[in-house]
Fold these 2 entries.
Entry 1:
Amino acid sequence: MSDIIKIKQLNVKSTIGTETWGKPKLQPVIVDVVVYTDIMKCGETDNLEDTIDYSEIVKAVIKFSEEGTFDSIQEYSIKLVQAITEKFTIEKINVKVALPRAHLHSSAIVCSITRTKDNVNELFTKDDVYIIDKLNVNTVIGFNDCEKVVKQALDITLSYHPKVDSEIKTVEDLSTIVNSKILAEEVNDLVERTRFITIEALASSIANCCLTSFGVEKVNVRVEKPNAITFASASAVEIERDISSIPKLNKKYQSHFQPKKRAPTHVAYIALGGNIGEVAKNISKALKLLSEKCKILQTSYLYETTPMYVVDQPNFLNAACKVLTDLDPFELLAFLKQIEKDVGRVPSIRNGPRAVDLDILFYDKLILKTENLIIPHPRISERRFVLEPLNDIAKNFIHPTKQQTINSLLKILKHNPSEAYNKVRRVMPIRNQLWRWNEKTYLMGILNATPDSFSDGGKYNTLETGLAHAKEMVESQVDIIDIGGMSTRPFSDDGVTEEEELNRVIPLIKAIRAEPWGKDIPISVDTFRAEVALQSIEAGADLINDVTGGEGDPRMFEVMAQTDVPVCLMHMRGTPKTMQLECKYENGVLNEIEQVMADRIDKAQRIGVRFWNVLLDPGLGFSKDVEQNFEIVRGMEVLVSEHSRLANMPTLVGPSRKSFIGKTLNQPDPQQRVWGTAAVCTALIAANTSILRVHDFKEMKDIITISDKIYRNNNNNSILKDDNKIISIKDGEYIPPDFKSEVYRIIPTYENDHDQLPKSLIIKLATKNPGINSLLQNIQGYYKEAQFYKQLEKIPELKTPKIYYSSVADSKNEFIIVMEDLALRKLTVANQDNALNYDMAISIVKYFALLQSKFWNCRVNPLFKTIEWMKEPNFAIYLKDLTIQMFEERKLSFIERNRQRLTEKTVETVKTIDITQLYEKNFPSDLKHCTLVHGDPQPKNVFIDSINHEIVMIDWQYSSVGYGIKDVVLLLGIWMSNKTTREEILKIKNVYYDELIGHGVKDFSREAFEQQWNHCLLLSLCNIASVSEKENIGDDIEKQKKYKAYLELSESRFINFIQNQDF
C-alpha cells in the first residue's frame, strides 16, 4: 500500500506524566500522524467521501489529547492509535508523539509507533522507536590543546528500539522498562565525565552503554559538535549498532572514560547478610574477599533483624557496603556468587537460612533487567533490613526508578503497619557476644597495670593484684575490662617504652584468659601503640581503646583493620604532656569533636576498619577545661544526632574521677569523687551513651541499673523478642473494637476437634480515629521554620512537604495554628481547574452534616445496624459506585500485603464478600459474628467463620461508616482553589459545625471539632487524598499510578454528582 495521508507537527496540549511533586502535568505535545491507505478512488472522483478526512483526524487527536490524562508517553501513543483506528477504517497507521518540555536538557522526548488493524492492541512491536532528540551536554572532547581544557557543547540524538520481554502485560510495565528520561540522564552523566579525542569514539561508547546497560536491542547515535567548524553549523557522526555487534557484553562493558586503563570507576552498593554459623565472621570474611577485586569505600553499621518471608529460622545479621570497581555488573554478580560459595553458603530454600548472602543493590545509576540480574534490586523498598544499613552509607542517594532518596524510602517503610513485626537492632559483635545498642548501658571496668595512673596508680601493677581485681569485676558483672599499661593522665611523661608497656599488659591478658571465670569476659586494651594493640589481640583481647583516635601511631589503623575487632577512637589534642595547653576551640568544642572525629572515622574506613566496629569517645578530661567537659556531657545527644556527621554512633565515655568533677566539688582526692562521677554517669545514660568506663564499677553498676530503668524504655534482654499481643477468641466469638492501634495475632480456639487445625491471620486493627489525631512526623522539621516566619510576618515560598501517615503524635495547638496559617497562605492544592467555588463548598458541608447526623450514634454498633444511613438516596448509590471500582483490587492487595507476615498457622487466602451484598443486606449464611473496628476511611471487620473454621476479613472503602469530618475536610482541601480566602474557609468551618449541632449531633465539643479540622485541613492542603489508602500503597509505583487514576475518576464523578443535586 503506497499511498499515505500525513498530518505533520500538529500542536496540541495534554496531561502526560507528573511533575516533581506528583501532580498531573499539562504540557505541549507535537503529533505526527501517517495513515497508510488507498486514495486511488478519491483521485478519480475528487469526492471527500472516498478518502479519510484528515481534518476529522485532527479533531479526534485534539479531543483525545485535551480530555484525557496519561501516565506516560507510551500510554498516550498507544491509546491515540487505538482511538483513531476505532473511529476510522485504517489498515495501517504510524503515530509520532514528541514532548518538547518533558526533559530539561533535550529538545524533545519522542515515541513513534506503527500499528495495523491486526495488532492495534499490542503494547509493543519491534518497529517501535523511542527518540531522545538533541540532548545538550557539555564535555571535554577534541585533539587540540584548548579542547582538552575547555568543555564544549554537544548535541546528541538517540533513536533506539528497546528489548521488551513477553512478561510485559500493562502499559505501566512498559513505561517502567522503557524510560527515555532516565536514559537521557545516564547518557548525560556518562558524557560529562568523558575525555575522548574523537566524537566517533564517544558515539561508540554511548551505543555500547545503551546496548549493555539499558536493555536496548538496537540504537542509532548521532553526535553533533556545533563549534568545531567556523563556517558550518556542526560536524557530526551518526552510527547504528545492535546487540549482535557486541558479542560479549560483560567484556565490552568497559570504561566509558579516557584513558582506558585507569582506576576503578563504577560505584556499587552491596547488601550483606546471613544467619548460620559465626555470622559476623562470615560477613567480615566476605568483605575481605570482596576487597580483592573491589575497593571498599564505606561499610554500614551491623544490624540484627528478624527474618522475613520464611520466619521459622534464626535472626539475621545485615550490613551494606559501598565499593569502587572496574567489574561490569555481570562480572560483579559472578564474583559475589563465588564469595558466597567460598564463605560456605550452600543451596537452600528461597529466603531460607544461609551462611552469607551478597546482593547488588545499585550499580552507578544503572537500570538493568535480565533473566539473572535486575538492578536496582527489585525489593529494596520493602526490606528494612536492607534500607537501614543502606541509609548509613547512602542516605541521600536517589533510587533510579523510584526517584526517592534512601532516607525517604526508609521513613515510608517505617510507617507501614506491617513493620511492627520486623525488629531491627544495631549491634556490635565482640568475643562470643552480640552487643545491642540502645537496649542497655554497658559497663567497662578500668584495670590500670601502671604505677602512676592518676587515681589508682600502683594498686594493680602486679600480676597477682591485677588478676584479683579482674576477677572482682567479673563477679560484679561488668561487661568488659579495660587494661592499660601506660598512664595518659594530664602532664604525664611518655617515657614508658613499648617493651615495658607490653610486659605490663600481655601477661595479665593471658592470665585472665587462663582462668575459668575469664574465658568469656571481653577485654579491651588501652593503648595508642600499634604493636601493643596487635600483640594484645593475639593474646586474647577483644577491643582496641586508643586515646589518640588512631593518630598516635601511623600503623594503628592498619592493625585495627587487620585484627577486625571493635575499636574506640577518642578525641584529644597534642599528647598527655601537652594536651591541657590546647583547650581553645574557635568553633566550639562539640563542633570540633564532630568534624575531627568524622574525618578520622572516614580515614579508618578507607584503610579497612569496619564501621560497625567503631566506638566514639569525646575525650572527657583530654584537652578540655572544666566548662568544656560539662558542655560535652550536655551535648552528647546533639553530637550523635541524626543531622550530625557522627549520626547514631555508639559512644564510650570515661567520666570516672576526672578533675573537672573534683574542681566542681572542690574535692582534690580522686577516690572521693564517686558520687560526682555517679551524677555525670546518670546524665550520660539519659543522653543514650552506650558504654561507661569507670573505676568504681560496683557503685556505677547500681547507677546504670536504675538509670536504664528510667531512661531506656525497654527490657535489657539479650535476644530479640516477639512483642505481638496474643489474644484468644472462641469459635464465633465477638472481637471487641477498642484495641487502640496495636498489632495482634488472632488465635482462635474451637469447641470441636478437627483433623487439620484451622489457620489464623495476622492483622492490623485500626485505631478509633486514624488520621484525625495524627500530626505527621515528616513535617515536624518545618516547625521552627514556620514559627520563625510567623514572627516576621513573612512567609517565603516553600515546596509542599512530602507527608506520610504516621502514628498518633502529641497535639500542639500553637504548632497547628502556625502550620495552618502557612498552609492556607502558601501551599498549593491540586486540581485547580476543577476547583469548587465557595457557594458549592457551603452546600457540600451542609449535606454532609445532614448525612452524618443520621449515622453518628450508630457508628460503633455491629455492621447490621449501620446499614440504615446508607438508604439515603443518591448518596448511597454514589458510595457503592466508588467502592465497587476498587474492591477486587484492594482484596488482592490485602492478600499480598499479608502474605509476607504468614506463619505456619496462617491462611493462604482471604475469604471475601462481594460489596453489593452489603447494600442488599443479603449476607452469607455462614457469617455468624462480626465487629466494626473503628476507622475512617478504611474500616476493617473481622469475625470467625464458624462453618469453615477460619478467620474472615472484609476489607472495603467508605462502606460502613461513611464520610466523617476528616473526609469532608480532605475533599474540600483537594477541590477548593487556593484562591479561596482565609475568611471564606473559616466561614465554611463555622457553617459545618453549626449544621452538625443543629442536626442533633451530641457529645462533640467545639474544641474537639477545631482540633480535627486543623489537622485535616493541613493534610488536605498538602495534597493527601486518603491517608489510610496512601499508607497501604506505600512506594509501589504501579499501585500509586492506579490509585492516582482512581482518585481522578472518583473526583470527577463526585463533582458531577454534586452539581446535579438540589441542595
Entry 2:
Amino acid sequence: MPPKSVVKPSRTPKDDPRLGYIDDVPKTPAIDHPPNVLKYGLCPKPKSPAKPTGDTMTVRSNYVQVTEVPKTLYAYSLTFFRTTEEGHRLEYNKRREIRDAYQALMKADALKLKAESVKSVTDFKTLWTDKHITGHTESDVTFSSNVFEYTQQNGKLIKDMYAEVSFVDELSDIKEALKSKHIKDLPEYIRALNASVAQCIVDHSKDTGKEISRVGANKFYITNGYKEMKGLRAGRGYFTSIRPGTESTLLNVNPATSAFLPPITVSNFIKSIGKDKLVYVSQLLRGATLRIRYTRANYEESDIDYNSEAARLKIFTQIGPYFASQQKFYELEKKVDGQERKAKGSDHGTTVQSYFTDKAKVRFPAGATAKSPEMYCINVGKRVDTLSTKVEENTIPNDTLMRKQSAQGAQWIPACLLQIVPNQVVTTTLRPVHTSQMIRHALRLPAENVGLIEDEGLEIMGVKSDSQGQKPLAKMNFAVGDELIEVPATLLPQPKLSYGNGSLGKMIICGSWDVKGVKFASPAGKFKSISILAMPGSFYGTEKDLANEHENFIKLLKGHGLKFEDMISAEQVCTKGSLFEEGEEPDDREIVGKFLNKYCWTDERCGLVLIPEHNYDTYAMVKRLADFNGMIILLATGTKFTGGDQIRSNIALKINMRYGGYNHNFDPAEFNNVLSLGRRKNTIVIGADIAHCGGGGKEGSPSIACLVGSNTSAFMSYPGSMRLQRGGQELINDDHMYSMIQERLRTWKKWNYKSADSSNKSKKKSKKDPNNPEWPANMIFFRDGISESQFEDCIEHEIQQIKKAYRELCGQELELTFIVCGKRHHTRFYATEENQTYKQKLTIDNQQIFNAINGNVQPGLLVTSVVTNPEPFNFFLQSHKAIKGTARSAHYHVLENGMDLSRECLPKLTMMLCYAFGRSTTGVSYAAPAYLADRLCERGRVYLRPWLLDPDMEPKFKVLDQKDANGKRTRISEEEMNEAKAKFAETLSKTESVWGKHYGKDVDGQKWKNPWRPNLCERDGMFWM
C-alpha cells in the first residue's frame, strides 16, 4: 500500500519470495437452504393447549418460557491500555481495537478466569462473570490484568498490553428483578443475560459445525444461508432476546433478514452493482472492512508484520475519480505546528499503478486493463476532497487536487487488490432495485415463520437438546422450555365511522372500508381551483382527454363535499407543450417551477402533477419546491389518476386534509363511551417522532424531530412542527421540545378558545368557563421512536420539558398521559383457530392460491399479560390487517398517566386513534398521531435530500484536529463531537439552500422555526399528507 509520503527513513526489506503475490478470494461454499416448511395456514397448537375463558382467546407467540436464569452476575468495565516509551498511558478505544484486545486478553487468560473456573461473557462494553474475579471482592475495586500480547491494527506486536478492570455492579437475584422491576430499571439485566445467551449460541455453533455470524448483540445469521440479490445477499438468521414477562422470564426468537455485502473483490462488486452507479456503490461500502490481498514487504529490525490479518484490514472511505494509471500521491513537507501539511512542490508525484508495479512488485490479474474497474482507486485512508463519484476515461487528472489529497491523508489502492471481508451487513438505505427484493425475501406469513423457528431457530439458539440430551443454554445456568408459548388475548371491536350530512356511517370490515358516495365529515374551506400538470410520458391522451379527466375529477371532489368556485376551465390543464415554446427543452424542475408559478401562486389554488412512474427523486424535487414556496401540490402517476373513482377518492382524501378539513369522525356515542366530549374539548393529543438520515449519508447528517398536535375534539387533524438536531440523538432536544409544544398549544387555542370580544387576537382574558378553556388542561402524548433503554432519560428530560413549556405558556399545571409506541420489537402473535384469522388470495412460489388461510390475527388483537413487562402498564395492540408477511403489533408503554385513564380505556382509545389516519381507508399499525409525526419526519428527509446526495454541497461538517501538550493529535471526545454536531444542525437550519429561507423569520410575534413557508399553516391543515 502506498505510504502517505513517498520518502521514508531508509529501511531494509526482508527477503520474501511471496512479495507482491495476490491471494485468491476464497471459494463460496454451497448455500445452506432453509428447512422446507408450510408457507401459509394456521400455527399448530402446543402439546397441551390451554382452554380460553370468558371473552378471551389463546394465540401463540414467538417466545419460549425461561424458568431459571443465572442467579447473580458481576459487571466490570474494561479499559485496554499500554505505556508508551515516553511514559504516557495510551488507551485503545475503537470498537475493533476493543474486540481484538479482549480476544487477546481471554486467549492469554490474563484475568485467570479459566484457571479459576470463572464463567464470563461480554458485549465488548462490559464483562460479566458468575463470581467475583479472583482476589478482588471489594465493590469499588479497580485493578489491572496480567500483561498480555496484542497485535495492533497496523500489525505491530504489543508485548506489554494491560486491561484495567473496574467493578461496576452486582446484579443479584436476577429472576426476581425481572418479575418486579420497572422496565426502565431492567436494561442492564437484559443486556447481561443476552450476552450470556449469545455466548451459548456461539459455543453451540462451534460444537455443531453450523457456521453462525453474529451481527450486533442479538442477531445470528447462518453464514451460508442467503439468496443472491443483484450484487448483494439476503441473509437468513434469527434474533433473540431475554424478556421480562408478567408470569415468568421469556426468550424471544424471531426470524431475521438482512442485506449483506458479498465477500468478493471491490472491483467485482463495482461491476455487479454497475459502473454507472458509483455513488450507490460508495454508499453500500461506506464503513465496510476490506482486506488487502497482496503480500507486502516487512522490514529488518521492525516489530510490525504488515501481512498479519490485523494489518491487512482497512476501512473503505471513498472511490477516487481517476484510474490507477492517473492517480498520484506525493512526498509531503515536514510537519509545522499550526499549519496544514502540504505536498512538496519539487515532487512530481508517483502514480498508484507504478508504485504497485515497481515498488510493491504486484502482478495485476488478467483483465486488469488500464481503464477497467480493477484499476479504480479506493481510498482506505482519511476522507479527502475529490470530484463527483465517477471514473471517466477522458478525465484529465487535476494535479492540485491530487496534491491536496496526499496532504489530507488519502491512501489509494487499486480495487482488484481489496476484498470485502465476509459477513458484513449493509448499513445504508437500499435503493428500490434492492429494497423490493429485500421485502420479497423478508415477508413471510405466520406459518412459515413458526416453521423456521421450530425447525431451525430453536436449535441454533440452544433451546433444543443436543445429542447427549443436554440443552446448550443450561451451560450458562438457563432452564428453558422447548416449544413456543400460548398467550391469552382479546379482540377489541373496530370503530364505527361517521361522515358528513346525508352520508351513511361506515362499518369497518377487517380493518378497511371505502368512501364511495360519502361527503367528508368536515370539508375544507372554499378554494379556487385545482390545476393539473401532465409531465412528459405520464398521460398519452390528447389535451382534450386530459381536460375531460380533470372535469370528472372536480365533480368527484364536489361529490365528497369540497367547495370550489364554480369554475372548470381548460386552462387549468397543462403539459410541457402548453407551458413552453416549441424547441425549448426544459428539465423537470423547470417544468414544475413554471407550472407552480402560473397556476398555484396562492394556497387557494391547488396543483396536481401527474408523473410517469413512482420516482422518489421527482417526488422530493416537487414537494421541496412547493413547500418552500408555500404552495399545496399533490403527485400521482398518470395510470393511477385515470384508474377510476376509488383512486381519485384517495386523492380527494389528501386534498381535504391538506386544506384543514378532516374526512371522517368516530361515531359520537361510541367515542363518548371511551372519552367524554367534555373531556375531549379540554384535551390536546400530541404525536412525536425522530428520524435519522440513515447509514451512507453525509458526515454530520442531522436528525429530524417532529411534533403534531390535534386542533379539535374530533382528534382528526394534526398540524405539525419540525426541527433539525444533532445527528443520532434519540431524545428530542430540550429547546426543540419546548418550542414545538408551545407551537401546538397556540394552534389549539386558535381553533378552540373564544375570547371575550370574540377575537382570537385579544389579550384580554374572559372569566374562566369550563366549556371555553383558554388552554387544554389535558394532554395525551404518543411518543414514537425510543427504546426501553431510553425510558429513564425520556422521563427525566422530555416529559419535564413538556410540562415546563406548558406551565410557562399556560400558567397552570398539565395533566399529562405519556405513551410510548414501540414498533421495533420482535414479538409476534399467530392464529391457531380459523375464526381468529381471515382468508385471502395468496401467491406462493409463483402459484395463486384462492381462499387461503392467512394466519395473522384479525385487527383489534389486544394482549395485556404474559409477554408484557411487569411495570409500568403496557400492552400489545394489533390495530391493522396484515396484507403481506406477519403482522407486528404496536407495543405501548404508559410512562405517565396524569389523566388517570383506566387500563380498559387506554387500549380502546388507542385502537380508535389508529383509525384517525385520514389519508387512508384502512387502520394503521399504531396510533395515528405518532404515525403522522413519522410522515412529517419523512418530509424533512425530502427537504434534506439535495444536500445529502451531493457530497460537495455546502455546508460540510468538519471537526478541527486537537493536539496534546506534545503536539500529537488526540481523539476528540464524545461530548465534543456531540456539541459539534449540534452546532452543525443549527447551521444547516439557517442555510437557505438546505432548509429554505423562512427559518428564523418573525411571524405573529414569534420566531418561525419550521422550514416551510408560514402561509401553509394558515388553515392548519396537514399539507405534508
